[in-house]
């Protein structure tokens, strides 16, 4: 019996499978020669004619009579490496989210306690500031469910090789303590702005500068100095992570999938057509303080096909632009620093020739623009995008996508001073992009990632 089991499970794959004779006559002779060693001729014939099934990768000797050879060393090492990466990703993501979620809850408790900061806060108006532990527990449960969905989606991208393992839990963990102290020190100033209703407390030197439109010279999120100071640029990433419980970077990274897949497809098509090897160009607008740019450069550096991609980073804030540039200069990879350039300009009037870019990526811009500014930006994107190029667009979740978050979307505008947010979440993006581009931009796909919506548009080839 054990001989038959051995042959059925191993011998048929090793002796007869690996060294299988090619001629039908040779195969018949091998069957006849092996038959006396196993059983009677009819039994051997039935055994040898059994359909071969692939060896299960994870099966063990849990059942009597089952035996499978050990995996080859390369496969075993790959499995071990995958397990280590999964553990590293899971623990890093959990640590990061736990830190920012607890910090957020502590901050909300501090604000709700009063201390002269929140005289205008009302629990009926700002439910997230409530000290009701049941409401907070429901929020935590909901947040953890969304965290699991988002992390599973990201891990599937990492496994598939869509993009590389992100640097979690933090690029610079030792910076968390001073950033936390700075956040809390600045919180009182932000709450005073909110309590007084002041929304234009930006440095005086920018009030008369025509480069900055009136809508830009505001304190979005009741942020001290708005976007127009070095201190604002330094603390921005930490503030956003507190706001989203440590999921901001993860949501931004969901734009990497469609962007990198398109760039790889573009490289291969150029190679097949034997086109002149011009570097692919990407416009990152706005680049902000460089959070998404760091992840993008990590992937461009790791992929041999994309190491020549040039990324132009544009922002209207000189301070955020300088912050992003300083972060790139800290990178050790010469490939990343060589192909990243920085431009100080308004997205409504891009200083580039027609058809300059293969792809444009934009993250969290439109919800802070009035509608007419959105149309001008789309027109400029259309002008500077090459035919067949893609726009990967990410911004806030909109109305109708998740009923559980409808109330949160309504509160966000009130809680964080977003004067154009309501119009954005009610805007039909397909129609807006089509009309503003004179029907040159075609909607391709969209996906929802917790509080972020990612859309892809393509410029028609005429």
Structural write-up:
There is one protein chain. By secondary structure, this protein is of the alpha/beta class. Among the domains are: 2-69, no CATH class; 248-459, Rossmann fold (3-Layer(aba) Sandwich). The protein has 16 helices and seven strands. It has helices spanning 2-18, 24-38, 41-48, 73-112, 133-160, 176-196, 230-243, 248-252, 256-272, 291-302, 318-329, 334-338, 371-384, 406-415, 421-425, 429-436; strands spanning 281-284, 310-315, 340-344, 357-363, 385-396, 441-449, 452-459. A seven-stranded mixed beta sheet has the order 3-2-1-4-5-7-6, with helices on both faces. Helix 7 packs across helix 11.
